[in-house]
Amino acid sequence: MTQTESDKANAALVLFSGGQDSTTCLAWALDRFGRVETIGFDYGQRHRVELDCRAGVRAGLAALKPDWRARLGEDHVIDLAVLGQISNTALTQAVEIEAVAGGLPNTFVPGRNLMFLTFAAAVAYRRGIAALVGGMCETDYSGYPDCRDATMKAMAQALNLGMEKNFTIETPLMWLDKEATWRLAFELGGAALVDLIREDTHTCYRGDRTHRYDWGYGCGACPACNLRSEGYRRYVAATP
Question: Closest Cα to residue 18, out of 190, 217, 235?
Fold first, then answer.
């Protein structure tokens, strides 16, 4: 059966890592689109445990609402080992996290989101999906240039020109800080979704799943843990 344009417009492909931000984005998409598929990338990341979390998080989301269960479609995992091979960063090598020339932390993986979106668009092209959803944010972030709104707009234009399609790149967290991201999760799925994010998602750059905090698992010291924990602290303080 040939998909109509309305069918394509009602489907989304979520860049889903297994972390807090992408889980919130997946819930956001399940609330808005009739069919939602997910895509993850194995690029030799130091915190590869995030990939192990994905199936449990997807199952947990599907269990929260009957509509979400009905809308959640296929999952795709792409092997991008070559990205890790050409990247000398703290996310792909066992080196200490620190700032480097230009003020960027060495957790920045050059080209990562650009590659993710290109491969996601190629899958979406084949699957008849028009909307790509990602957790990019330039409010609470580490200064990564491939997380900026201007980059997303430029990528959408390049993908549409290069594939002669009308993709949209949806970034529901772009202008939210981490406190607001926790609040959005509560608005989408209540305390159950907040608890799912705390217990089952992974954000820590060091891949630490041995230390448990009130905001979830992690080393408690890397930039990702600091953002997540501080956002949770402010969210709890502002929540009755």
Answer: 217
* Look-up of token digits 């668009």: 121
Q: What is the pLDDT of residues 138-156, one digit of tens each?
A: 987 667 888 999 999 999 9
pLDDT > 70: what percent of the chain? 88
Boundaries of every domain in the chain: 8-177
Alpha helix (H) residue ranges in 128-222: 149-163, 178-200
- Give the CATH number of domain 8-177: 3.40.50.620
| 127: exposed, middle or buried (Cβ count in 10 Å: 0-12, 13-18, 19+) | middle
- 57 CB-contact burial (10 Å; exposed 0-12 / middle 13-18 / buried 19+): buried
Here the tokens at position 13 are 């492909």
CA atoms of 216 and 10, how far apart (whole Å): 33
Q: What angle in degrees, to the nearest 10, is found between the helix axes of 178-200 and 20-30?
A: 100
- Reported as a single tens digit per residue, the pLDDT across 161-193 is 999 999 999 999 999 999 999 999 999 999 999
